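Checklist before submission:
- one chain only
- standard amino acids only
- sequence pasted in full

Submission:
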Amino acid sequence: MVLFKVARVQTSPIEGQKPGTSGLRKKVKVFKQPHYLENFVQSTFNALTESKVIGATLVVSGDGRYYSEQAIQIIIRMAAANGVRRVWVGQHGLLSTPAVSAVIRERVGHDGSKATGAFILTASHNPGGPTEDFGIKYNMENGGPAPESITDKIFENTKSINEYLIAEDIPKVDISAIGITSLEGPEGSFEVDVFDNASDYVKLMKSIFDFQAIQKLLTSPNFSFCYDALHGVAGAYANRIFVQELGAKESSLLNCTPKEDFGGGHPDPNLTYAKELVARMGLGSHAAEDPPEFGAAADGDADRNMILGKRFFVTPSDSVAIIAANAVESIPYFSSGLKGVARSMPTSAALDVVAKNLNLKFFEVPTGWKFFGNLMDAGMCSVCGEESFGTGSDHIREKDGIWAVLAWLSILAYKNKENLGGGKLVSVEDIVRQHWATYGRHYYTRYDYENVDAGAAKELMAYLVKLQSSLDEVNKIVKGISSDVANVANADEFEYTDPVDGSVSKHQGIRYLFEDGSRLVFRLSGTGSEGATIRLYIEQYENDSSKTGRESQDALAPLVKVALGLSKMQEFTGRSAPTVIT
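Returned file contents:
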């Protein structure tokens, strides 16, 4: 039994430790500064009620990015010094963000203990390595990210901190081996429980989906499959779930060894960064000859997903709508019906049409997973999603990349239950096109203008708000740019009153809503010293089934022209083209 002492280390505030909904993200070199991580962790302990610290059980793990191992050891020593009773660590320090949420909600320790929160070490889809990004966020006992009331308190604490507690004499804990390390300190016993990082999550997935039906699909000779973890933490689950449990070939896994620098890549599952998967699925300039039927990718911490069919990309907005439309018949967890569905405001209205047709409760919320969490805790929402490749359900309180893949495989298994012996398969593309024929299609694109002068960006947004005071004026401008585009029926600045706690979120984006269901949305993010990012979302609704098979860029061209002209984008920003088009 190791005895440890508690040291009180003098420190002073460090500027810029304001956590967003996704925690605190900075370059590794910033986190490695003396006292930087310690100040933030102590400020978090100080923001929590005593019962969530003294005698409590905390989870500490993450996506395995560079600096995680050192950070875990520091947090273990600080937790012990602050009176925490137990720290649970996924083997090798690895737990996906959705798995952390599952562990908080589901895992019971050897002594009957339950976790009350977690420090998750991740910068999500940002690159990792000595010169790249690191991040830390705190999740609450419901398994979801800390609400603003807590993150605001953490930030206030970082501005006045003068000491932190640490048990510096605790030896380095071996997090590569499963087992319990017991220690003794001034407040009594303390233990570190290193546990299998996949079993709790796998158990949860098996309680949601029909693994037998998915296994029949994945082992069928006329179905092929490919999963790319982009060297993120999803690799720790891919072999266990897809190969061991569901019988897929090991060769169907790409980049499934977690690496601290993500293999030098950018672990963001989209058409730009998941190049190898995109090519294998028969898309892009280096398209493979005979692509698999289904492909998917995850980001660094495995909460995001990208879904692909053979030579076919499924937009995240369509993906959540299709999952919601098929969930009850395809996924056992939802067999008794959906409580409701929700999407973030910038996500296309494809989900709205499904909700209306199926007579489901529907919610449009600001960007940020915590808004979905509130609805789920109140039993008002079953399935939700956002356009930035995040999809999830009320099984946990984070978005869940592998859940989304299993949901799609469940839909494919259900649609093909008669075809697996050798008939023609119902493909991903067939499912999407059938969905469009039933509900109409939301052509959708996002333009990102990065590092725009912050002053110019604010002027553009102020101009768009001012313009909304006269819809006649707006429609005159719209018709002057393109007579093919419908009239604007309504224009506003999106504001959300949470139906659960009554909190109001203002200035969440500027919307122009057209008579035919089309939309333009303008949002500003990151007005920091490096300038601002303007995000422009353009959505054209088409319910004539003879027109749902057009190329997106052709269908959207008139509306794009209107968006750029109406906002005077080039005039305000000096940019003739966006930095990124999604």
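Reviewer check: The chain is about 35% helix and 25% strand.
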